[in-house]
Amino acid sequence: MRIPALIAAAALGLAATVPAAPLLAQVKLAASTPAAGAKAKGTKVVTLTFSEKLNPSDVGATIVMTAMPGMKDHPEMLIRNFTASWSADGKTMTLTLKKPLPAGTYDVRWEATGADRRATKGVVTFTVS
Ligand SMILES: [Cu+2]
Questions:
Q1: Three-state DSSP class for 86?
Q2: How big is the CA angle at 46 (ends 119 and 106), to the nearest 5 degrees?
Q3: pTM
Q4: For residue 71, which of 44, 50, 101, 104 sits 20 to 30 Å off, Cα-Cα?
Q5: How far is the CA of 38 from the centre of ligand 1 (A)?
Q6: How many angstroms does the Cα of residue 69 sit away from the middle of ligand 1?
Q7: Measured in whole angstroms, how far is the alpha carbon of residue 93 from the centre of its chain?
Q8: pLDDT value of residue 94
Q9: Residues with CB under 5 A from ligand 1 (ion)
Q10: What stretches of the chain show up as alpha helix (H) in DSSP?
Q11: Residue 96: inside a domain, yes or no?
């Protein structure tokens, strides 16, 4: 009796309170290396695995150093020396650094537009010693 219930709710102006199962789920980060909160060592590769196949041109990622041992008030420092590549299944983006990341705290900030055409963003924070 799902349809009559929806019609009744709409008639009462309550359609927004009816939980609707979206046909397309919003893109999510399924996994990363290093993982969020990880204490890593000698990191030269960062991977982001998404919940669905993505078009590489719909995804952006930056690596930002936010803290460094022994340095107070470290300004955000954009790490640029990496190249991005994609897995054959279109779900995993790999950022390969030219040199391992120096000791410090990093944010990997990503933004992706999935099949539902909604942009989602997120951040993975980890520490390198
Ligand atoms: Cu730094």
A1: strand
A2: 80
A3: 0.81
A4: 44
A5: 18
A6: 9
A7: 10
A8: 98
A9: 65, 68, 77
A10: 2-11
A11: yes
- Is there a contact between 60 and 113 (Cβ–Cβ < 8 Å)? no
pLDDT tens per residue across all 129 residues of the chain: 455 554 454 555 555 555 665 678 899 999 999 999 999 999 999 999 999 999 999 999 999 999 999 999 999 999 999 999 999 999 999 999 999 999 999 999 999 999 999 999 999 999 999
> Which CATH number covers residue 105?
2.60.40.1220
Q: What is the pLDDT of residues 74-88, one digit of tens each?
A: 999 999 999 999 999
41 CB contacts (<8 Å, ≥6 apart)? Answer: 128, 129
The single-letter DSSP state of residue 109 is: E
Q: Regarding beta strands 104-113 and 82-86, do their DSSP bridges make them parallel or antiparallel, or are they unpaired?
A: unpaired
Q: Which two tokens stand for residue 62?
A: 């930056």
Query: How many structural domains comprise the chain?
Result: 1
